[in-house]
Amino acid sequence: MSDTKKGFPLPSSLEVVPGTEQAQAAYPYYTHFVPEDDSKFWFYNSMHFPEPMHHFDMITAEAAYVAMGAFNTRVHVLPTAKGIEHRVINGRVFIGGVAVTDPAEIEERIGEFQKRAFYYYENWEDLYAQWKDKMKALIADAQALPTPSLPDYEPIETTHTGKGVAASHDLLVIYQKQIEGYHRMWHHHFEFLLLGYGAYMTFFDFCKKAFPEISDQAISRMVAGMEAEIFRPDEEVKRLARSAVELGVDAHFVDNADIEKVLTDLDALGEKGQAWLAELETSRNPWFNVSSGDGFYHYHRSWNDDLSLPFAAFPGYIEKIKAGMNLERPTAQLIEEREQLVIDYRELLDTEEDKATYDQLISLAHRVFPYVEGHKFYCEHWYTNLFFNKIREFGRLLLAHGFFGDDGVEEDVFHLTQYELESAIIDLMLAWGIGAEARGPKHWPALVAQRRAAIEEWGKHDCPPALGAVPDAIDDPAINMLWGITRENLDKWLDDGTENEKELKGFAACSGVVEGTARVVKSVAEMGRIQQGDILVCQVTNPTWSPIFQKIGAAVSDIGGSMSHMAIVAREYGLPAVVGTGKATKLIKDGMRIRVDGGRGTVTILDDLDADAEKLLEEV
């Protein structure tokens, strides 16, 4: 960095990749950077959106930030943080928090927050039970939506029953219910999540003041050893591996197996093979309703849609079972360590008043914390996967009516924005009702091809981790805990490498020192390259990658804080990890030998840097 004053590029300095201007312009107007955005701080949300966003997939950002803003600002009324603004350029989603800085407004909001949040804290278990019922009902409603279709003629029953509504109207009803349900899901998602972060952050702040030398990791270990639904899919994979061994059909599960052939062979095997297939069906509903990603991209299919990820895990699990190794998460050990830490630090407090406060805060953190991961199974995975599959049904309908051309596929629907898709549906409704040709078949194929090319091109270009003015402080609990964006961490991101060009610093997510070969994975599709003992280096990971944790020795991420999903999962599996390094995937080359110190939060490059890596250091 040549400028002596360290800082991130301004949003106005970013240029749209040449040749993709029309694809960029197609994103909704309110997601584009404007001149006044130069005065704000933004960061690239690579945790949730590590790949360029298809135009329809932007609903996963929009609906989330609509709901998060409403609950932050208007429902729970967080004292110092309102919502999150988002922008998209070259398919990359940047976000920035809206802080409350006026002391009088903060004071007013504290009063509102206490009335609202404390009610939830006092009635957490009952309200959370209601929440699960709401989510299951929402999932059932989405599943019950009929497949959109258009008959040649309206059924005679419409006339004979006086229904008075033609079949074409159902298309609009189904689509609008899909969109409304997805937005509603995100409202349910944020009903509890920010309160969970808030409870933990209150305990975190108390510990930092009471025990000045305490590490972030020590505090996070005081809430480790949780049970949450998001871990259940991996438990089911282990259960199926045990079943394969017990039934004597384990020889069918090998690396890179043809999954359909394995299923066919097991069925033909007779009683034992069919018994295993029955166990598979038991696991699939509902536990395989998790996507291979984090639930924000239509092409990160669920395990039910694509069994590749669980089947890739079976050989390793079976080998360990036959060797008598323990596959379980070290939950009992984590709980024992957790309870001892809680006792040890409590004894350091001087007054009974402080001990009472400490007891109250840690008790609340333990009550609310399972939701911080558990909600993901219902929201980002089960519901979102169902939602995308229902949108695919409209893709099939439009494809059948020529909207995507002769070479089109149903997946082309995701190159339309949510608003464009509704207009295409109405175009089809008009054509069906009028008896004329729709405009879509001449309008959409060229635009879809243009946007498909833009997504591919954007994927070839990196983007800065942050933009704009560096804030003096960042007080949003979600930004701190989930993304790991703190003032101190931003300074690390801005480090030009002059202090120690071979050491990266981040959050100490889970202790342990491991040396090994770096495997830089930039998308879900690359997970197959991971070999036993590799150190996973990625922008971000998520709980549904858990089956590959049996292979890797440690994990490193660009983004994430002490309460990020990767940090939580690493602790629950006892996997040494460092998160929030800012630039690991840029500076660490695939195949390099590195050392991960999960206790200190450092990653050391042991190989000499080659010329390409040296050049990257100069550019960051």
UniProtKB/TrEMBL annotation:
Residues 530-601 form the PEP-utilising enzyme mobile domain. It holds the Pfam family PEP-utilizers. It comes from the Bacteria. InterPro entries: PEP-util_enz_mobile_dom (IPR008279), PEP_Utilizing_Enz (IPR051549), Phosphohistidine_dom_sf (IPR036637). GO terms for molecular function: transferase activity, transferring phosphorus-containing groups. This is PEP-utilizing protein mobile subunit.
